[in-house]
Amino acid sequence: MATKKKAAVKKSSAKKSSSSRKYSPAAGKAVEREMKEMKEGKLRSGRSGKKVTSRKQAIAIGLSEARKAGARVPQKKSS
């Protein structure tokens, strides 16, 4: 019986890494500001005015604020 040896094949990554940042530093500052507000218990959601407790929601609010201010932020994913 002959044993077959599989040659190691190098896989090239499908995605090319871009050298430019996806989020601008201003967007990071906006998210940081909203996270601090959430931790202090001062961050409220838009229409209902309920207190934000979710970390993800605080980040989303920060990115939304950055978008409105004109910072470089990728577009929202459409569902």
Describe the 3D structure.
The longest helix has 16 residues, at 25-40. The model has no long low-confidence stretch (mean pLDDT 84). Helix 1 (25-40) crosses helix 2. The chain is elongated and about 70 Å long. It has a domain at 25-69. Helices cover 39% and strands 0% of the residues. It is built from 2 helices and no strands. It has helices at residues 25-40, 55-69.
Task: Name the helicity range.
Answer: 25-40%
Q: What is the chains' assembly state? A: single chain
Low-pLDDT ranges: none
The global form is elongated
Report the major sheet.
none
The helix-strand sequence is HH
Assign the structural class, choosing from mainly alpha, mainly beta, alpha/beta, alpha+beta, or little secondary structure. Answer: mainly alpha
Number of helices: 2
Average pLDDT, rounded to a whole number, is 84
- Strand % is under 5%
Radius of gyration: 21 Å
For the termini, the CA-CA separation is 55 Å
Count of beta strands: 0
